[in-house]
Amino acid sequence: MNKEDFFIKQFISNTKLIGDDGAVIGKWVYSNDAFFENVHFKKEWMSLKQIARKAMLVNISDAIAMNAKPKYALLTVAIPKDYTKSDLKSLAKGFKEVAKEFNLEIIGGDTISNEKLDISVTIISKTKKPILRSGIKKDDLLCYTGTLGTSKRDLEKLFKKEKLSKESKFIRPKLHGEFFYKISKYVNASMDISDGLFFELERMSKQSSVGFEFFYKIDKEIGCSGEEYELLFSFEEKYKEKIEKIAKKYDVPLTIFAKAVKGKYSCECANHHF
Amino acid sequence: MNKEDFFIKQFISNTKLIGDDGAVIGKWVYSNDAFFENVHFKKEWMSLKQIARKAMLVNISDAIAMNAKPKYALLTVAIPKDYTKSDLKSLAKGFKEVAKEFNLEIIGGDTISNEKLDISVTIISKTKKPILRSGIKKDDLLCYTGTLGTSKRDLEKLFKKEKLSKESKFIRPKLHGEFFYKISKYVNASMDISDGLFFELERMSKQSSVGFEFFYKIDKEIGCSGEEYELLFSFEEKYKEKIEKIAKKYDVPLTIFAKAVKGKYSCECANHHF
Q1: Could you tell me if B151 and B109 lie in one domain?
Q2: What digits encode the pLDDT tens for the residues B207-216?
Q3: Gap between the Cα atoms of B223 and A130, Å rounded
Q4: pLDDT score of B273
Q5: Which domain holds residue A210?
Q6: How many domains is chain A built from?
Q7: What extra comment accompanies this record (chains A, B) (predicted)?
Q8: Which residue of A4, A74, A99 is in closest CB contact with B113?
Q9: For residue A124, is pLDDT > 60?
Q10: What is the DSSP letter of A41?
Protein backbone atom coordinates (compact mmCIF):
# COMPACT_ATOMS: atom_id res chain seq x y z
CA MET A 1 0.00 0.00 0.00
CA ASN A 2 1.38 3.42 -0.88
CA LYS A 3 1.75 6.06 1.84
CA GLU A 4 -1.10 8.17 0.52
CA ASP A 5 -3.55 5.27 0.83
CA PHE A 6 -2.03 4.31 4.21
CA PHE A 7 -2.69 7.82 5.53
CA ILE A 8 -6.24 7.94 4.19
CA LYS A 9 -6.91 4.50 5.72
CA GLN A 10 -6.31 6.00 9.19
CA PHE A 11 -9.53 7.99 8.78
CA ILE A 12 -11.82 5.51 7.10
CA SER A 13 -12.98 3.62 10.19
CA ASN A 14 -14.40 6.86 11.60
CA THR A 15 -16.67 7.74 8.67
CA LYS A 16 -18.61 6.41 5.72
CA LEU A 17 -18.19 9.65 3.84
CA ILE A 18 -14.57 9.24 2.69
CA GLY A 19 -13.78 7.38 -0.51
CA ASP A 20 -15.70 9.04 -3.32
CA ASP A 21 -15.03 12.13 -5.46
CA GLY A 22 -16.86 14.13 -2.81
CA ALA A 23 -18.59 13.69 0.54
CA VAL A 24 -22.38 13.87 0.47
CA ILE A 25 -24.18 15.59 3.36
CA GLY A 26 -27.86 15.99 2.54
CA LYS A 27 -28.12 17.86 -0.74
CA TRP A 28 -24.57 19.20 -0.47
CA VAL A 29 -21.39 17.62 -1.81
CA TYR A 30 -17.97 18.63 -0.50
CA SER A 31 -14.81 17.96 -2.45
CA ASN A 32 -11.24 19.11 -1.95
CA ASP A 33 -8.16 18.77 -4.13
CA ALA A 34 -4.65 20.12 -3.92
CA PHE A 35 -2.80 21.61 -6.88
CA PHE A 36 0.81 22.08 -5.81
CA GLU A 37 3.88 23.37 -7.65
CA ASN A 38 6.41 20.61 -8.41
CA VAL A 39 3.76 18.03 -7.47
CA HIS A 40 0.98 18.70 -9.98
CA PHE A 41 2.68 21.25 -12.21
CA LYS A 42 5.95 23.06 -12.87
CA LYS A 43 5.71 26.82 -13.23
CA GLU A 44 7.38 26.80 -16.65
CA TRP A 45 4.64 24.56 -18.00
CA MET A 46 1.73 26.94 -17.65
CA SER A 47 0.87 30.61 -17.13
CA LEU A 48 -0.38 31.66 -13.70
CA LYS A 49 -3.85 32.11 -15.13
CA GLN A 50 -3.77 28.59 -16.57
CA ILE A 51 -2.60 27.20 -13.22
CA ALA A 52 -5.45 28.88 -11.33
CA ARG A 53 -7.93 27.70 -13.98
CA LYS A 54 -6.76 24.10 -13.78
CA ALA A 55 -6.79 24.12 -9.95
CA MET A 56 -10.46 25.09 -10.14
CA LEU A 57 -11.40 22.76 -13.01
CA VAL A 58 -9.96 19.58 -11.47
CA ASN A 59 -12.09 20.28 -8.41
CA ILE A 60 -15.23 21.08 -10.37
CA SER A 61 -14.63 17.82 -12.22
CA ASP A 62 -15.19 15.96 -8.92
CA ALA A 63 -18.46 17.79 -8.36
CA ILE A 64 -19.70 16.92 -11.86
CA ALA A 65 -18.75 13.26 -11.41
CA MET A 66 -21.01 13.22 -8.32
CA ASN A 67 -23.84 14.76 -10.41
CA ALA A 68 -23.58 17.94 -8.36
CA LYS A 69 -23.52 21.57 -9.49
CA PRO A 70 -20.69 23.66 -8.03
CA LYS A 71 -22.00 26.60 -6.00
CA TYR A 72 -19.21 27.86 -3.75
CA ALA A 73 -15.43 27.61 -3.50
CA LEU A 74 -12.87 28.18 -0.75
CA LEU A 75 -9.24 28.67 -1.82
CA THR A 76 -6.01 28.16 0.06
CA VAL A 77 -3.38 29.95 -1.99
CA ALA A 78 0.27 29.85 -0.87
CA ILE A 79 2.15 32.43 -2.94
CA PRO A 80 5.90 32.77 -3.52
CA LYS A 81 7.39 35.92 -1.98
CA ASP A 82 8.71 37.23 -5.30
CA TYR A 83 5.35 37.37 -7.10
CA THR A 84 4.50 40.84 -8.39
CA LYS A 85 1.09 42.49 -8.19
CA SER A 86 0.65 41.66 -11.86
CA ASP A 87 1.35 37.98 -11.08
CA LEU A 88 -1.27 38.06 -8.34
CA LYS A 89 -3.78 39.64 -10.72
CA SER A 90 -3.19 36.91 -13.35
CA LEU A 91 -3.63 34.23 -10.72
CA ALA A 92 -6.82 35.80 -9.38
CA LYS A 93 -8.11 36.17 -12.95
CA GLY A 94 -7.84 32.42 -13.55
CA PHE A 95 -9.85 31.63 -10.43
CA LYS A 96 -12.45 34.28 -11.20
CA GLU A 97 -12.87 33.30 -14.85
CA VAL A 98 -13.72 29.71 -13.96
CA ALA A 99 -15.99 30.83 -11.12
CA LYS A 100 -17.91 32.96 -13.62
CA GLU A 101 -18.09 30.20 -16.24
CA PHE A 102 -19.59 27.79 -13.73
CA ASN A 103 -21.66 30.39 -11.91
CA LEU A 104 -20.04 29.67 -8.57
CA GLU A 105 -19.00 32.08 -5.84
CA ILE A 106 -15.57 32.22 -4.22
CA ILE A 107 -16.53 32.73 -0.59
CA GLY A 108 -13.29 32.62 1.31
CA GLY A 109 -10.10 30.79 2.08
CA ASP A 110 -6.61 31.67 3.17
CA THR A 111 -3.73 33.43 1.44
CA ILE A 112 -0.20 32.97 2.73
CA SER A 113 3.38 33.59 1.68
CA ASN A 114 5.34 30.45 0.79
CA GLU A 115 8.36 29.15 -1.12
CA LYS A 116 6.25 27.91 -4.03
CA LEU A 117 2.75 28.20 -5.45
CA ASP A 118 0.53 25.70 -3.67
CA ILE A 119 -3.22 25.73 -4.11
CA SER A 120 -5.96 23.80 -2.37
CA VAL A 121 -9.56 24.21 -3.44
CA THR A 122 -12.72 23.15 -1.62
CA ILE A 123 -15.84 23.02 -3.77
CA ILE A 124 -19.32 23.04 -2.25
CA SER A 125 -21.82 21.71 -4.74
CA LYS A 126 -25.48 20.84 -4.76
CA THR A 127 -27.20 17.72 -6.01
CA LYS A 128 -30.63 16.14 -6.07
CA LYS A 129 -29.23 12.67 -6.79
CA PRO A 130 -25.59 12.03 -5.93
CA ILE A 131 -23.97 9.35 -8.10
CA LEU A 132 -21.37 7.27 -6.27
CA ARG A 133 -18.50 5.00 -7.29
CA SER A 134 -20.19 2.13 -5.52
CA GLY A 135 -23.31 1.91 -7.67
CA ILE A 136 -22.17 -0.38 -10.51
CA LYS A 137 -24.59 -3.28 -11.01
CA LYS A 138 -23.72 -6.61 -12.62
CA ASP A 139 -24.19 -6.42 -16.42
CA ASP A 140 -23.83 -2.61 -16.44
CA LEU A 141 -21.94 -1.21 -19.39
CA LEU A 142 -18.79 0.77 -18.57
CA CYS A 143 -18.10 3.92 -20.55
CA TYR A 144 -15.80 6.94 -20.63
CA THR A 145 -16.09 10.34 -22.27
CA GLY A 146 -13.59 11.98 -24.63
CA THR A 147 -10.26 10.64 -25.75
CA LEU A 148 -7.81 9.10 -23.28
CA GLY A 149 -4.03 9.06 -23.61
CA THR A 150 -3.28 12.65 -24.65
CA SER A 151 -2.55 13.82 -21.10
CA LYS A 152 0.11 11.14 -20.60
CA ARG A 153 1.63 11.96 -23.99
CA ASP A 154 1.54 15.69 -23.25
CA LEU A 155 3.11 15.21 -19.83
CA GLU A 156 5.95 13.28 -21.48
CA LYS A 157 6.37 16.18 -23.94
CA LEU A 158 6.65 18.62 -21.05
CA PHE A 159 9.37 16.54 -19.42
CA LYS A 160 11.21 16.70 -22.76
CA LYS A 161 10.81 20.51 -22.61
CA GLU A 162 8.48 20.56 -25.61
CA LYS A 163 5.69 23.12 -25.73
CA LEU A 164 2.04 22.09 -25.60
CA SER A 165 -0.86 23.57 -27.49
CA LYS A 166 -3.05 25.82 -25.36
CA GLU A 167 -5.85 23.41 -26.15
CA SER A 168 -4.06 20.45 -24.57
CA LYS A 169 -6.28 18.81 -21.96
CA PHE A 170 -3.25 18.74 -19.67
CA ILE A 171 -3.37 22.56 -19.61
CA ARG A 172 -7.10 22.97 -19.98
CA PRO A 173 -9.25 20.03 -18.82
CA LYS A 174 -12.47 19.69 -20.80
CA LEU A 175 -15.40 19.01 -18.51
CA HIS A 176 -18.74 17.63 -19.67
CA GLY A 177 -21.10 18.90 -16.98
CA GLU A 178 -24.12 19.77 -19.11
CA PHE A 179 -24.01 16.38 -20.86
CA PHE A 180 -23.60 14.47 -17.61
CA TYR A 181 -26.41 16.23 -15.74
CA LYS A 182 -28.71 15.34 -18.65
CA ILE A 183 -27.84 11.62 -18.61
CA SER A 184 -27.58 11.37 -14.81
CA LYS A 185 -30.96 9.67 -14.42
CA TYR A 186 -29.64 6.71 -16.42
CA VAL A 187 -26.29 6.43 -14.63
CA ASN A 188 -25.64 3.91 -11.83
CA ALA A 189 -22.08 4.84 -10.86
CA SER A 190 -19.52 7.45 -11.84
CA MET A 191 -16.21 9.13 -11.07
CA ASP A 192 -13.73 11.29 -12.91
CA ILE A 193 -10.50 9.96 -14.39
CA SER A 194 -7.77 11.78 -12.50
CA ASP A 195 -5.25 8.97 -11.90
CA GLY A 196 -5.92 6.98 -15.09
CA LEU A 197 -8.70 4.71 -16.37
CA PHE A 198 -7.20 1.50 -14.93
CA PHE A 199 -6.58 3.07 -11.50
CA GLU A 200 -10.14 4.34 -11.35
CA LEU A 201 -11.54 0.98 -12.49
CA GLU A 202 -9.74 -0.69 -9.59
CA ARG A 203 -11.35 1.79 -7.20
CA MET A 204 -14.80 1.24 -8.71
CA SER A 205 -14.29 -2.52 -8.66
CA LYS A 206 -13.56 -2.41 -4.91
CA GLN A 207 -16.41 -0.07 -4.08
CA SER A 208 -19.03 -1.73 -6.29
CA SER A 209 -17.77 -5.32 -5.66
CA VAL A 210 -17.66 -6.17 -9.36
CA GLY A 211 -15.10 -7.15 -11.98
CA PHE A 212 -14.99 -6.13 -15.62
CA GLU A 213 -15.13 -8.05 -18.89
CA PHE A 214 -13.37 -5.88 -21.47
CA PHE A 215 -14.75 -5.80 -25.02
CA TYR A 216 -11.20 -5.31 -26.40
CA LYS A 217 -7.69 -4.81 -25.09
CA ILE A 218 -6.99 -1.28 -23.90
CA ASP A 219 -3.41 -0.17 -24.30
CA LYS A 220 -1.48 1.13 -21.28
CA GLU A 221 -0.90 4.40 -23.13
CA ILE A 222 -4.67 4.87 -22.81
CA GLY A 223 -5.44 3.09 -19.55
CA CYS A 224 -2.58 4.46 -17.46
CA SER A 225 -2.94 8.07 -18.62
CA GLY A 226 -3.75 10.27 -15.60
CA GLU A 227 -5.06 13.84 -15.37
CA GLU A 228 -7.61 13.22 -18.09
CA TYR A 229 -10.60 14.54 -16.12
CA GLU A 230 -12.93 12.60 -18.36
CA LEU A 231 -15.97 10.89 -16.86
CA LEU A 232 -16.08 7.15 -16.20
CA PHE A 233 -19.57 5.77 -15.58
CA SER A 234 -21.83 2.74 -15.78
CA PHE A 235 -25.41 2.22 -16.88
CA GLU A 236 -27.86 -0.50 -17.80
CA GLU A 237 -27.71 -1.61 -21.42
CA LYS A 238 -31.32 -0.54 -22.02
CA TYR A 239 -30.30 3.13 -21.68
CA LYS A 240 -27.48 2.89 -24.22
CA GLU A 241 -29.32 4.56 -27.09
CA LYS A 242 -30.71 7.36 -24.95
CA ILE A 243 -27.26 8.16 -23.58
CA GLU A 244 -25.66 8.02 -27.03
CA LYS A 245 -28.28 10.39 -28.40
CA ILE A 246 -27.62 12.95 -25.66
CA ALA A 247 -23.84 12.54 -26.13
CA LYS A 248 -24.27 13.31 -29.82
CA LYS A 249 -26.29 16.42 -29.02
CA TYR A 250 -23.56 17.71 -26.67
CA ASP A 251 -20.78 16.58 -29.02
CA VAL A 252 -19.23 14.33 -26.35
CA PRO A 253 -17.37 11.24 -27.67
CA LEU A 254 -18.31 8.09 -25.75
CA THR A 255 -16.38 4.83 -25.54
CA ILE A 256 -18.23 1.81 -24.18
CA PHE A 257 -15.45 -0.62 -23.36
CA ALA A 258 -16.52 -3.19 -20.78
CA LYS A 259 -19.31 -4.91 -18.92
CA ALA A 260 -19.55 -5.41 -15.14
CA VAL A 261 -19.26 -9.04 -14.12
CA LYS A 262 -18.71 -11.03 -10.93
CA GLY A 263 -15.14 -10.81 -9.71
CA LYS A 264 -12.60 -8.08 -9.11
CA TYR A 265 -10.24 -5.97 -11.13
CA SER A 266 -6.66 -4.89 -10.36
CA CYS A 267 -4.82 -2.12 -12.15
CA GLU A 268 -1.40 -2.85 -13.62
CA CYS A 269 -0.10 0.67 -14.17
CA ALA A 270 3.07 1.71 -12.34
CA ASN A 271 2.14 3.44 -9.10
CA HIS A 272 2.58 7.16 -9.58
CA HIS A 273 2.22 8.05 -5.91
CA PHE A 274 5.22 8.76 -3.63
CA MET B 1 -1.16 47.20 1.11
CA ASN B 2 0.58 43.86 1.63
CA LYS B 3 0.39 41.23 -1.11
CA GLU B 4 -1.94 38.97 0.85
CA ASP B 5 -4.53 41.75 1.18
CA PHE B 6 -3.95 42.76 -2.46
CA PHE B 7 -4.72 39.21 -3.60
CA ILE B 8 -7.83 38.91 -1.42
CA LYS B 9 -9.04 42.29 -2.71
CA GLN B 10 -9.24 40.80 -6.22
CA PHE B 11 -12.14 38.65 -5.04
CA ILE B 12 -14.07 41.01 -2.82
CA SER B 13 -16.06 42.80 -5.51
CA ASN B 14 -17.61 39.49 -6.53
CA THR B 15 -19.01 38.49 -3.15
CA LYS B 16 -20.23 39.76 0.20
CA LEU B 17 -19.16 36.56 1.89
CA ILE B 18 -15.40 37.16 2.12
CA GLY B 19 -13.93 39.07 5.03
CA ASP B 20 -15.01 37.32 8.20
CA ASP B 21 -13.66 34.29 10.09
CA GLY B 22 -15.98 32.19 7.97
CA ALA B 23 -18.52 32.51 5.16
CA VAL B 24 -22.15 32.12 6.17
CA ILE B 25 -24.53 30.27 3.81
CA GLY B 26 -27.86 29.68 5.49
CA LYS B 27 -27.20 27.81 8.73
CA TRP B 28 -23.75 26.68 7.60
CA VAL B 29 -20.43 28.45 8.11
CA TYR B 30 -17.39 27.60 5.98
CA SER B 31 -13.88 28.46 7.10
CA ASN B 32 -10.50 27.52 5.71
CA ASP B 33 -6.99 28.05 7.06
CA ALA B 34 -3.58 26.88 5.96
CA PHE B 35 -0.96 25.51 8.36
CA PHE B 36 2.28 25.23 6.41
CA GLU B 37 5.77 24.13 7.42
CA ASN B 38 8.25 27.02 7.54
CA VAL B 39 5.34 29.45 7.31
CA HIS B 40 3.32 28.65 10.44
CA PHE B 41 5.65 26.20 12.15
CA LYS B 42 9.05 24.57 11.97
CA LYS B 43 9.13 20.82 12.34
CA GLU B 44 11.60 20.92 15.22
CA TRP B 45 9.17 23.04 17.26
CA MET B 46 6.39 20.49 17.61
CA SER B 47 5.63 16.79 17.30
CA LEU B 48 3.61 15.66 14.28
CA LYS B 49 0.63 15.02 16.52
CA GLN B 50 0.88 18.54 17.93
CA ILE B 51 1.11 19.98 14.40
CA ALA B 52 -2.03 18.15 13.27
CA ARG B 53 -3.84 19.20 16.45
CA LYS B 54 -2.94 22.84 16.01
CA ALA B 55 -3.93 22.80 12.31
CA MET B 56 -7.40 21.64 13.38
CA LEU B 57 -7.70 23.93 16.43
CA VAL B 58 -6.86 27.17 14.61
CA ASN B 59 -9.64 26.35 12.16
CA ILE B 60 -12.15 25.38 14.84
CA SER B 61 -11.28 28.68 16.51
CA ASP B 62 -12.75 30.48 13.46
CA ALA B 63 -15.96 28.47 13.71
CA ILE B 64 -16.34 29.29 17.42
CA ALA B 65 -15.72 32.99 16.77
CA MET B 66 -18.68 32.89 14.33
CA ASN B 67 -20.81 31.21 17.04
CA ALA B 68 -20.91 28.03 14.99
CA LYS B 69 -20.37 24.43 16.04
CA PRO B 70 -17.87 22.51 13.91
CA LYS B 71 -19.50 19.47 12.25
CA TYR B 72 -17.27 18.34 9.37
CA ALA B 73 -13.69 18.81 8.19
CA LEU B 74 -11.87 18.35 4.88
CA LEU B 75 -8.08 18.07 5.01
CA THR B 76 -5.46 18.75 2.37
CA VAL B 77 -2.29 17.12 3.70
CA ALA B 78 0.94 17.41 1.71
CA ILE B 79 3.42 14.97 3.22
CA PRO B 80 7.21 14.85 2.85
CA LYS B 81 8.44 11.78 0.96
CA ASP B 82 10.61 10.55 3.84
CA TYR B 83 7.82 10.22 6.42
CA THR B 84 7.50 6.73 7.84
CA LYS B 85 4.23 4.91 8.49
CA SER B 86 4.70 5.70 12.15
CA ASP B 87 4.98 9.42 11.28
CA LEU B 88 1.76 9.18 9.27
CA LYS B 89 0.02 7.50 12.20
CA SER B 90 1.10 10.26 14.61
CA LEU B 91 -0.12 12.91 12.19
CA ALA B 92 -3.46 11.14 11.68
CA LYS B 93 -3.80 10.71 15.46
CA GLY B 94 -3.58 14.48 16.00
CA PHE B 95 -6.37 15.15 13.49
CA LYS B 96 -8.54 12.37 14.86
CA GLU B 97 -8.09 13.36 18.51
CA VAL B 98 -9.32 16.88 17.88
CA ALA B 99 -12.17 15.62 15.69
CA LYS B 100 -13.29 13.40 18.58
CA GLU B 101 -12.95 16.17 21.17
CA PHE B 102 -15.17 18.48 19.14
CA ASN B 103 -17.49 15.75 17.87
CA LEU B 104 -16.78 16.54 14.23
CA GLU B 105 -16.33 14.17 11.33
CA ILE B 106 -13.40 14.20 8.89
CA ILE B 107 -15.23 13.61 5.62
CA GLY B 108 -12.55 13.89 2.95
CA GLY B 109 -9.78 15.89 1.43
CA ASP B 110 -6.62 15.20 -0.50
CA THR B 111 -3.30 13.61 0.46
CA ILE B 112 -0.23 14.26 -1.67
CA SER B 113 3.52 13.84 -1.56
CA ASN B 114 5.47 17.09 -1.17
CA GLU B 115 8.80 18.57 -0.05
CA LYS B 116 7.42 19.72 3.30
CA LEU B 117 4.40 19.24 5.54
CA ASP B 118 1.67 21.61 4.38
CA ILE B 119 -1.85 21.36 5.75
CA SER B 120 -5.03 23.13 4.75
CA VAL B 121 -8.23 22.53 6.69
CA THR B 122 -11.79 23.39 5.72
CA ILE B 123 -14.28 23.37 8.58
CA ILE B 124 -18.02 23.14 7.98
CA SER B 125 -19.88 24.37 11.02
CA LYS B 126 -23.47 25.03 11.95
CA THR B 127 -25.00 28.05 13.61
CA LYS B 128 -28.39 29.45 14.53
CA LYS B 129 -27.05 33.01 14.90
CA PRO B 130 -23.77 33.82 13.18
CA ILE B 131 -21.80 36.60 14.90
CA LEU B 132 -19.84 38.81 12.50
CA ARG B 133 -16.95 41.23 12.78
CA SER B 134 -19.18 44.01 11.51
CA GLY B 135 -21.67 44.07 14.36
CA ILE B 136 -19.99 46.42 16.86
CA LYS B 137 -22.36 49.19 17.98
CA LYS B 138 -21.28 52.57 19.33
CA ASP B 139 -20.78 52.38 23.14
CA ASP B 140 -20.26 48.58 23.03
CA LEU B 141 -17.60 47.29 25.41
CA LEU B 142 -14.64 45.47 23.82
CA CYS B 143 -13.33 42.39 25.52
CA TYR B 144 -10.92 39.52 25.01
CA THR B 145 -10.60 36.10 26.64
CA GLY B 146 -7.51 34.62 28.28
CA THR B 147 -4.07 36.14 28.57
CA LEU B 148 -2.40 37.79 25.59
CA GLY B 149 1.32 38.03 24.97
CA THR B 150 2.49 34.52 25.75
CA SER B 151 2.39 33.36 22.12
CA LYS B 152 4.71 36.18 21.01
CA ARG B 153 7.05 35.45 23.90
CA ASP B 154 7.00 31.72 23.19
CA LEU B 155 7.64 32.27 19.48
CA GLU B 156 10.70 34.36 20.39
CA LYS B 157 11.86 31.51 22.64
CA LEU B 158 11.53 29.07 19.74
CA PHE B 159 13.65 31.30 17.52
CA LYS B 160 16.29 31.25 20.30
CA LYS B 161 16.07 27.42 20.21
CA GLU B 162 14.56 27.26 23.69
CA LYS B 163 12.02 24.55 24.49
CA LEU B 164 8.40 25.39 25.29
CA SER B 165 6.14 23.77 27.83
CA LYS B 166 3.60 21.38 26.29
CA GLU B 167 0.98 23.65 27.77
CA SER B 168 2.15 26.69 25.81
CA LYS B 169 -0.73 28.20 23.85
CA PHE B 170 1.61 28.41 20.87
CA ILE B 171 1.69 24.60 20.83
CA ARG B 172 -1.81 23.99 22.10
CA PRO B 173 -4.32 26.80 21.53
CA LYS B 174 -6.98 26.97 24.26
CA LEU B 175 -10.41 27.48 22.78
CA HIS B 176 -13.42 28.68 24.74
CA GLY B 177 -16.31 27.28 22.71
CA GLU B 178 -18.65 26.25 25.51
CA PHE B 179 -18.29 29.64 27.21
CA PHE B 180 -18.80 31.55 23.96
CA TYR B 181 -21.89 29.64 22.83
CA LYS B 182 -23.45 30.41 26.23
CA ILE B 183 -22.82 34.18 26.02
CA SER B 184 -23.53 34.42 22.27
CA LYS B 185 -26.98 35.92 22.75
CA TYR B 186 -25.37 38.95 24.39
CA VAL B 187 -22.58 39.43 21.82
CA ASN B 188 -22.78 41.97 18.97
CA ALA B 189 -19.53 41.21 17.11
CA SER B 190 -16.67 38.75 17.43
CA MET B 191 -13.57 37.26 15.84
CA ASP B 192 -10.60 35.24 16.99
CA ILE B 193 -7.18 36.76 17.64
CA SER B 194 -4.91 35.08 15.12
CA ASP B 195 -2.76 38.00 13.94
CA GLY B 196 -2.71 39.98 17.20
CA LEU B 197 -5.22 42.11 19.15
CA PHE B 198 -4.31 45.38 17.41
CA PHE B 199 -4.48 43.82 13.91
CA GLU B 200 -7.89 42.38 14.65
CA LEU B 201 -9.14 45.65 16.14
CA GLU B 202 -8.22 47.41 12.90
CA ARG B 203 -10.24 44.84 10.95
CA MET B 204 -13.23 45.21 13.28
CA SER B 205 -12.93 48.99 13.14
CA LYS B 206 -13.17 48.90 9.32
CA GLN B 207 -16.00 46.41 9.21
CA SER B 208 -18.07 47.93 11.99
CA SER B 209 -17.19 51.56 11.12
CA VAL B 210 -16.22 52.44 14.68
CA GLY B 211 -13.13 53.57 16.57
CA PHE B 212 -12.08 52.57 20.09
CA GLU B 213 -11.50 54.48 23.30
CA PHE B 214 -9.04 52.45 25.34
CA PHE B 215 -9.50 52.30 29.12
CA TYR B 216 -5.71 52.04 29.56
CA LYS B 217 -2.59 51.69 27.43
CA ILE B 218 -2.02 48.20 26.07
CA ASP B 219 1.60 47.30 25.57
CA LYS B 220 2.79 46.09 22.15
CA GLU B 221 3.97 42.86 23.77
CA ILE B 222 0.27 42.19 24.38
CA GLY B 223 -1.38 43.91 21.43
CA CYS B 224 0.95 42.68 18.68
CA SER B 225 1.10 39.06 19.86
CA GLY B 226 -0.32 36.80 17.14
CA GLU B 227 -1.46 33.18 17.19
CA GLU B 228 -3.28 33.68 20.46
CA TYR B 229 -6.59 32.18 19.30
CA GLU B 230 -8.40 34.01 22.06
CA LEU B 231 -11.80 35.54 21.36
CA LEU B 232 -12.28 39.27 20.80
CA PHE B 233 -15.87 40.45 21.08
CA SER B 234 -18.18 43.36 21.85
CA PHE B 235 -21.40 43.68 23.81
CA GLU B 236 -23.69 46.26 25.34
CA GLU B 237 -22.69 47.41 28.83
CA LYS B 238 -25.99 46.14 30.29
CA TYR B 239 -24.89 42.52 29.67
CA LYS B 240 -21.54 42.91 31.43
CA GLU B 241 -22.51 41.17 34.65
CA LYS B 242 -24.25 38.29 32.91
CA ILE B 243 -21.21 37.68 30.71
CA GLU B 244 -18.82 37.92 33.66
CA LYS B 245 -20.87 35.41 35.62
CA ILE B 246 -20.77 32.87 32.77
CA ALA B 247 -17.03 33.49 32.29
CA LYS B 248 -16.47 32.72 35.97
CA LYS B 249 -18.46 29.49 35.66
CA TYR B 250 -16.34 28.34 32.70
CA ASP B 251 -13.12 29.66 34.28
CA VAL B 252 -12.40 31.96 31.34
CA PRO B 253 -10.45 35.15 32.17
CA LEU B 254 -12.02 38.25 30.59
CA THR B 255 -10.37 41.61 29.94
CA ILE B 256 -12.67 44.52 29.11
CA PHE B 257 -10.31 47.09 27.65
CA ALA B 258 -12.11 49.58 25.41
CA LYS B 259 -15.38 51.14 24.33
CA ALA B 260 -16.56 51.59 20.75
CA VAL B 261 -16.74 55.26 19.71
CA LYS B 262 -17.10 57.22 16.49
CA GLY B 263 -13.94 57.21 14.42
CA LYS B 264 -11.50 54.62 13.20
CA TYR B 265 -8.58 52.66 14.56
CA SER B 266 -5.27 51.77 12.91
CA CYS B 267 -2.90 49.11 14.16
CA GLU B 268 0.73 50.02 14.76
CA CYS B 269 2.31 46.58 14.90
CA ALA B 270 4.96 45.71 12.33
CA ASN B 271 3.37 43.94 9.39
CA HIS B 272 4.12 40.25 9.73
CA HIS B 273 2.90 39.31 6.24
CA PHE B 274 5.28 38.83 3.27
Answers
A1: no
A2: 999 999 999 9
A3: 48
A4: 45
A5: 133-261
A6: 2
A7: Reaction mechanism of ThiL seems to utilize a direct, inline transfer of the gamma-phosphate of ATP to TMP rather than a phosphorylated enzyme intermediate.
A8: A4
A9: yes
A10: B
